Amino acid sequence: MIKVGIIEDNEYMREGWETFIDHEKDLTVIGTFGSCEEAFESEQINKIDLAIMDIGLPGMSGIEGVKYMREHHPDVNIIMATVHDDDDHIFDALKAGAVGYLMKKVTPDELVHAIRDAQNGGSPITPNIARKVIATFQRAADLEEELSERELQILDQLATGRSYAAIGKKIFLSVDGVRHHIRNIYQKLEVHSRSEAIAKGISKKLINPGTD
Hints:
By secondary structure, the chain is of the alpha/beta class. It has ten helices and five strands; from the N terminus they run βαβαβαβαβαααααα. It has helices at residues 11-22, 36-40, 62-72, 87-96, 108-119, 127-146, 149-158, 164-171, 175-189, 194-203; strands at residues 2-7, 27-33, 50-53, 77-82, 100-103. A five-stranded parallel β-sheet has the order 2-1-3-4-5, with helices on both faces. Helix 7 packs across helix 9 (175-189) and helix 8 crosses helix 9.
């Protein structure tokens, strides 16, 4: 029997999910909560195998809730069920430790399947969210292929805060040569400043500042 906890501030959605989850012979809802704070103060949170959690909750957000669960209840699988489909929310939730990410318009059958999938070691993700995750990794791969070895070297040097002249001296290139490569870097990364280039380079794991 998979013991489920629901953390969702919409009472009608909580009740609807609880009804059809409890209808399954191998699933049971042992606690429903309107906030993370309410859930974490309850003894029931210690008994669940899997939590279905919203992101936009009153008080502590679902993202912070996932981090708390990973620290205090590391064996509990967490599926986010939310209206948010932007990259920031998706990756913040997955990085925090969620094993699944579903849109709230998920059907009862899809949610039940996702619960079983997560408990069997899977990572249930709504198809359009999965497409976004794949596209992000593909963009990162494309950027790495587009930037030449020299450009990656200069991007890494930009992150140290060195001037163009200091970079040129470090890698044995004229200042004009450094400027030429930096223009190409900006164009390929679709940025307009050093700080934007560094931020994108870090986010796409093209550079790792602090290792020089």
